[in-house]
Amino acid sequence: MDPKRSAQDVLRCHLCETPVPPLYCDTCSIHLCTTCGGEHLLDESTEHRVVPFKKRGCTSKCRKHSLKLCELYCAQCDIPICAQCVSSKEHHPHDVLDILNGIESKRNVLKNDLLELEKCIYPKYEEIASDIHLHKVNLNEKSQKLKTAIDKQGEDLHREINYIVTKLKSDLDEMDSNLLADLNRQEDEITCTISKITQSIADLKNLLNSKDVSLFFAHKSRNAEFKKMAPKLTVALPKFTAYMINKEQIYQQFGSLSALLVRPEEYGYTMDYPGADSSSLNRPLVDAPRTITEIYTFSQIVGYHFLCRVSCVNDQNIWIHHDDNMMRLYNLKGELVKSVQTKSGNRPTDIAVTRSGDLVYTDHDDRTVNIVKDTHIQTVIELQRWNPDCVSGSSTGDLLVVMDSDDRKQTKIVRYSGSSEKQSIQYNDIRQPLFSSRYNPKYICENRNLDICVSDCDASAVIVVNQAGKFRFTYTGPPSTTKESFSPRSITTDSQSRILIADLDNNCIHILDQDGQFLRFIESVISPMGLCVDSKDNLYAAEAYKCRVKKIQYCK
What we know:
Blueprint: H1 3-8, E1 23-25, E2 30-32, H2 34-41, E3 50-52, E4 72-74, E5 79-81, H3 83-87, E6 96-98, H4 99-209, H5 213-218, H6 223-229, H7 247-254, E7 285-296, H8 299-302, E8 307-312, E9 317-322, E10 326-331, E11 336-341, E12 350-353, E13 359-363, E14 368-373, E15 376-382, E16 386-393, E17 399-405, E18 411-417, E19 420-425, E20 442-446, E21 452-456, E22 461-465, E23 471-475, E24 488-493, E25 499-503, E26 508-512, E27 518-522, E28 528-533, E29 538-543, E30 548-555
Antiparallel strand pairs: 1-2, 1-3, 4-5, 4-6, 7-30, 8-9, 9-10, 10-11, 12-13, 13-14, 14-15, 16-17, 17-18, 18-19, 20-21, 21-22, 22-23, 24-25, 25-26, 26-27, 28-29, 29-30
InterPro entries: 6-blade_b-propeller_TolB-like, NHL_repeat, TRIM45/56/19-like, Znf_B-box
Pfam families: zf-B_box (PF00643)
Domain B box-type: 8-53, 62-99
C-alpha cells in the first residue's frame, strides 16, 4: 500500500489536522482533538454535543424541539427526548434515562430479538420450508397412487357393469331359446292341423262332385273340431327397462377425495415464543362427557320461554338470543355483560361470531344481514326476492348465508366477501336441489377441512358439501334407532373436524367424524337448540325450554 495514501486515510481533527482525534461532535458531525474539543464547546451559536469517538452517533435532534439535542431516553414511550421535553412534564411520571443507558437497553433488546430470530424462529421456518419441499417432491408420487386407486375402483365398477351386461345378455339368450322352442312346437302343431284341414277341403270337393248319395250321408263334419283346436297365439317377447342413472348414488358408492388443507401447524411444529397456536393438538373423545358449568340466562327472570342460539366470542363470553328482539352477551358466571336490540326491532333469525370477533345476525323479515360493532349495527347485505336464514363465519373471513326464496320453493347457500357475492351453492351435479325448500331454518357451519355443513331439519338430514360446493355425503341419523326420528337443529365443528349436531326431539347431540361416520352421543342435554365450541373444544349447548347454556367437556 502507498505510504502517502495510508497517511491520508488516518482520521484527523477537522480543525487542526491532529491525527487520530479522540472526540467527536454529534451536532456538527466532525472529529476533534482534545484541545479543539474544548474550544468547540465555547461556540454558543448552537448546542454542541462532544462525546468520545466510540460513542459517536448517540445523540440526535429532538423531534419536537428541533434546536435541542436528545440527551435522555423515555422508557415508556421508547423514544429519545431532550431536557425541554422533560421540563414540559409530557413524560411525567415516565422513567427517564440517560441516552447512553437507553441506547444500551435498546441494544440489548435488539440482541435478544436477533438471538431469538436466529436460534428459534428462523430454524423452525426453515424446517417447515424443508418439509414443504419434501411434500412437493412426494406430491406427484402420492397423486399417482391416488390415481391408481381411482383407476382400480373404476375398473372394479366397470367389471361389475360388464358382469351385469353379460348376465342380462345371457338371460336374454336363454329366454330367446325357450321362446323359440315353444314357437317351433306351436308351428309344428299348426302345420299338422293345416295339413288335416287341407285334406278335409279336398275330400269335401271330391264329395261334392260325387254321384254316390251314400257318401253324402256318411260324411262327418270336422269344422267344430278344427274351430276348437284353433289356438290363440300370444307371444310375450322380452323387454328391457332402463332405469334412470342416479349419478349422486354413483358418486356416493364410488368414493370421494378428502379436501386438501395445508397449514403450518399441521406439520407438528410449535413455535417457542408467546402467541403460538396450539389448535393442532390432538384431542380424542373422553369416555364420559361431563358438564363443567351451567349458565342460567336472563330469560328466566323476564319470562321469555325459548332459548334459540348461542355463539362463543372467546373462552370467557358467549352471545345468546331468545324469542325476542334482543341479543345478549353473558360471561361464564351467568352475568349479563350487555344487550343489543336488532336494528329493525324484529327477532333475529340467527346469530354468529365472525373471525374478527364481531357479532353478525340475520333478519329474515327485513331481508338483511347485519354486523354489530360495539353497539353500532351495520347492514352489510340487503336481499331482494330472497330471505336470509342462518349464517356462519368462515376461516377466510367470508360469510356463509343460507337463504330461501319468497315463494319458499328454493333454498341456497351464498358466500359473501363483505357485500359481494362470491359463490352460490344450490344444486348437485345432476341439477337436483341439495336442500329442502320448506320453511324451517337450515343451520350452517364451516368445518376445519373447509367443508360446508348444513343441518336441514325439514329433510331430517345433515348435508355436507366441499369448499367448491360439490356434494360429499348426507347423514340421516345414527346406525342404531333413537326413540324419536332424527330432528337436527344447530350444528358446529371442532378443531379435529368433528361435526356436532343438536337433536332436539331426542335430547342428545350427535358427534360425527369429518366423513360423516357416527362416533357417539352426548346425552346430558334436554332439548338442545343452539351449539358452539370454544378454542379448547369445550361445547356450549343451549337448552331451548330450560333457557340455560351447558358447558360440556367431551374431549381431552
